[in-house]
Amino acid sequence: MGYTMSKLELDAYVCDSETSNRTSRKPRKQNDISFEIDSEIAHITKLRSEPDEQLFKIMNSRKGNVISVVKMLAAREANFSKRGNFSLADRSYVLGQFLPVKGPCCIDRMNSRAYVSQFSTDGSLFVAGFQGSHIRIYDAGNEWRIRKDILARSLRWTITDTSLSSNQQFLVYASMSPIVHIVDVRSGSAESHANITDIHNGLDFSENDEGDYSFGIFSVKFSSDGRELVAGSSDDSIYVYDLESNSVALRISAHSSDVNSVTFADETGHLIYSGSDDNFCKVWDRRCFVSRGRPAGTLVGHLEGITFVDSRGDGRYLITNGKDQTTKLWDIRRMTSTASCARPRTFDWDYRWMDYPEKAKKLRHPSDQSLATYRGHSVLKTLIRCYFSPTHTTGQRFIYTGSSDHSVYIYDVVTGDQVAKLDYHESAVRDCSWHPDRPVMVSSSWDGDLAKWEFPGAQRSTPSRRPRRPIY
């Protein structure tokens, strides 16, 4: 299963789960309408995160009811399923019960705001970027030692994004500049000072020899093969950078406002998703629409700007966080042409220092194409990020997001339930990351802390607090 539970940990879980099953999973309302989700995505999610019907029959349990993990382990040992082991769905079901909600322990504490933090694709490394020029790479084992402390070159305002290549060799980092820097994280010393102990090569997205510093990069991602970068910028554009030719391969005037987030839809790299302050999420197919600079389609539904986009990895489903205080789930087969995308007028407010108007929270876009809307967290002050939970341990059964109210929220994709709220931080949680193979999550906040959350029963340190200096 990727993670072995001791008897002590298992007993602790059973005790906790019996309590949580009596108190959680209450029906949740969306604008006074019962939450419902498209049957196809619900079916796919359940196939990947629930045991098969045969196991329910063996356990004398109805489909949809909670099956005891202890009974599942006993059935596996007796080989009742005739498979000799758990299926992938069985494993996801078991580990999906062990939500990383206990703790936390403080991994690191900096005197500057944490803006980005993510596990590597294999979970061996963890990267965190701070406003005060530091990017730290940790060995994500028991000790959580700092493998590399990178001091960013030519930083403008803050580290806006980082991305680690799939082979964990190269890291790119961006700030409010058209220059994205790339570092070989396997070379040099643990202390990485730009062009002193390590070479931080600058990748110029400005497409001219003079260096146009009038825009910055909000979002940057490696392709799965490590040959390209996709970036979203404050000049309303999407860029694709070819690392082999060391040049911009594609620039699209994609939106009418800042492009806050971009990502590849799947491992092929053909489809790109983008989210912007113009309220729209757009889908770009590089095989068909690049020459005309037109999107394959547009997803309409947010009433305010989009802060983040995350793909389910199947080239079909994605989620977005919006300044209308919602996370939305989308199916790109429902996208529309740009010709019909009228932008509704809402309220004059600024999310950076104003609360979202109460009367606006009850509004819904008249042409909303999303499959589901998740509410409870707050998207204020900064570009709060949201994600699907890991495939191998949960079957992507959950959506989790940071929040400006200092918490992390976890929602059930299918029911819309808020299944957990993680409280520890003293300022906005801009980013958070769920380990791909273990029930561990790390949240990063503007209070400067990196906090690690684990499942019930895991050994953990007591959360530590100390007087803070002001963080600016």
Description:
The model is unreliable at 1-34 and 460-472 (pLDDT under 50). This protein has 472 residues and is mainly β. The two termini are 43 Å apart. The protein folds into two domains: 7-96, no CATH class; 102-454, Methylamine Dehydrogenase, Chain H. The chain has six helices and 31 strands. It has helices at residues 7-23, 39-49, 53-58, 69-78, 88-96, 391-394; strands at residues 29-30, 33-34, 102-109, 114-119, 125-130, 134-139, 146-151, 161-164, 170-174, 179-184, 191-193, 201-204, 217-222, 228-233, 237-242, 247-253, 259-264, 271-276, 281-285, 297-299, 306-311, 317-322, 326-331, 372-375, 386-388, 398-402, 407-412, 418-423, 429-434, 440-445, 449-454. The chain is 12% helix and 35% strand. Helix 2 packs across helix 5. The strands form eight sheets. A five-stranded mixed β-sheet has the order 4-5-6-7-11, with no helix packed on it. It is globular, with a radius of gyration of 22 Å.
